[in-house]
Amino acid sequence: LVEKVRPGSPAAALGIRPGDRLIAINGQAVQDIFDYYLSLPEPRVDLEIDGPRGRRTVSIRKEPGEDVGLVFGPESFDGLRRCCNRCLFCFIDQLPSGLRPSLYVKDDDYRQSVLTGTYITLTNLTKEDWERILGLHLSPLYVSVHTVDPRRRAYLLGSRKAGEIREQLARLAAAGIEMHCQVVLCRQLNDGAYLEETLEYLSSLWPSVASIAVVPVGLTKYRQYLFPLHPFDRESSRRVLNQVARWQEQLRRRLGTRLVFAADEFYLLAGRPFPPAEEYEGFPQLENGVGVARLFMEEWQREVRRLPGKSESSRLALIVTGKAGYRVLSPLLAQLRARWRNARIELLGLDSRFFGPYITISGLLTGSDICWGLKPRLARLRREQAAVLLPNVALRENREFLDGYTLESVRRELSLPVFAVRPTAKALLRKLEVVLWGSR
Ligand code: SF4
Fold first, then answer.
1. Do 176 and 208 contact (CB within 8 A), yes or no?
2. Mind listing the pLDDT tens digit for each residue in 378-391?
3. Which phi-psi region, left, alpha or beta, contains residue 434 (left: φ > 0; alpha: ψ -120 to 50)?
4. What pLDDT does residue 77 have?
5. What is the pTM of this model?
6. N or C: which end of the chain has fewer CB within 10 A?
7. Which atom of ligand 1 is the closest one to the Cα of 119?
């Protein structure tokens, strides 16, 4: 289904409209979006289109590699592939009821993995899917491995097929497909000796396995009827970091790469500093929360050095973040205050009342958390004409928080100016300047 047609494109010139359907390219029925991408190098494509004006074929002559100009809705033409697992740690199973339906969708689609970097388990692949992946050399893929012990993986994922992971990864590696892997670590389930075995096997597939992220399981307060899982604490996080560091050192000597990286959350839980930027080797697992804090800190230091000195600000800027963001930002604000001595900036790290105490990342802050957290301070904040700055990663499309609050409804409830800011140091510093002094 054509969602948009790029203005000025060959498709627009030929009258293809949003709502039309692409049926075939050069006489071949389209299976998914890869058929469209693969046609791009051609200097001429015949598109069979079905729409309100009936079915027709249009011929497009274009520069080889030039985009025809079609943008498709759900990236994969035949709908999103769902997962067929019942993972003991599934985050979606731990969501409260009553949220918007899209949040409960359990996707496990290899096409999305290639296009957008979402993680897949490989458990729902058919023979045809394998032919497609290998035949088109779809790379890189993002694979949720968790463990390579067949029985343990089948148990963790609640799927017999999950036990085939070693053969599946080896098959992808033999085809030269690049893989970024993740291990969602659960205490006493796939840590310790299981993690040892997993890292041993995955590193044997280097360079096809190009990076491995070890991330702690996310636990919300809605687990009453689910498998009992234990959150990582200081000691268990330190053990994980020690294990990862040992592997990094060994792999660096053996392969010339650290290959495996621990999530920022482990460093925060363990109370250890984040590794220097170069130890993240290009930050291949940022989307997984690996190295985000270090990257932010580096950018912050660079940007703060460039800032001009400022006089006293008349209003207050309140930066609201999660507990994890608070721990990263508070030492950085001390640096900023040395530069902007009289700036009135405060930082508030909120607990997640909505998801419970083990969820600390700002991306999962909800509108109700923010309203609840600011209520006791409201009189003072209004008196001081405070502006509230939130990380925009807490908002989904339409400026909506996970709990259905919107930026507008938070503004209304607080009667304060509230701004959503991109989670980069540059964007935050720029916004602070604007709200504190009106401009640069
Ligand atoms: S693969 Fe597992 S964790 Fe992911 S959505 Fe499915 S059940 Fe949940």
1. yes
2. 999 999 999 999 99
3. alpha
4. 66
5. 0.90
6. C
7. 4
